């Protein structure tokens, strides 16, 4: 799962939770006996005092308040998760740039990075060309580049001539 899918699921959770709770509240409300359901149903309904309707309304109001608190809590959790994802994404990008940045700065071209590494290790031009699948002339240029970097750093490199 990528970050967008996780955020989408986290955003959908409060809506699903509210829908479930509303369904439960509606189902509980529909279980009350209606008038005209026969003698026992009417008796149960008639025996139930009028404050019962007020009690049901109070119960629904309590459930709505609980749902609102739950939604607020889920939104806070979602905001925290989004901050964590943003932080992790920033750290991952920094590590990616740190890892690939050094190679890109030194080589200038990703297709010659491996050849540049071999040239820095001191392999000869033919070995570099064979291992990296490039021409001997390209390997010679890469080796010259690597030796030029050593010279810029104040190091004396082997000044071997290519073929």
From TrEMBL:
It holds the Pfam family DUF2802. Residues 29-56 are annotated as: Disordered. Keywords: Coiled coil, Membrane, Transmembrane, Transmembrane helix. Residues 57-98 form a coiled coil. The chain crosses the membrane at residues 6-23. This is DUF2802 domain-containing protein.
């Amino acid at each position: 799962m990528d970050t967008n899918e996780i955020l989408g699921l986290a955003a959908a959770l409060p809506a699903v939770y509210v829908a479930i709770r509303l369904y439960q509240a509606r189902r509980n409300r529909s279980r009350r006996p209606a008038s005209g359901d026969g003698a026992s149903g009417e008796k149960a309904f008639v025996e139930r005092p009028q404050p019962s309707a007020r009690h049901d309304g109070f119960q629904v109001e309590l459930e709505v308040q609980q749902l609102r608190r739950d939604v607020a809590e889920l939104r806070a959790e979602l905001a925290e998760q989004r901050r964590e994802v943003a932080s992790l994404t920033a750290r991952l990008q920094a590590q990616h740039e740190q890892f690939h940045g050094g190679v890109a700065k030194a080589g200038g071209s990703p297709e010659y990075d491996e050849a540049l590494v071999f040239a820095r290790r001191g392999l000869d031009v033919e070995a570099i060309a064979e291992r990296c699948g490039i021409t001997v002339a390209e390997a010679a240029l890469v080796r010259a580049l690597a030796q030029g970097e050593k010279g810029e750093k104040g190091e004396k490199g082997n000044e071997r001539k290519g073929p």
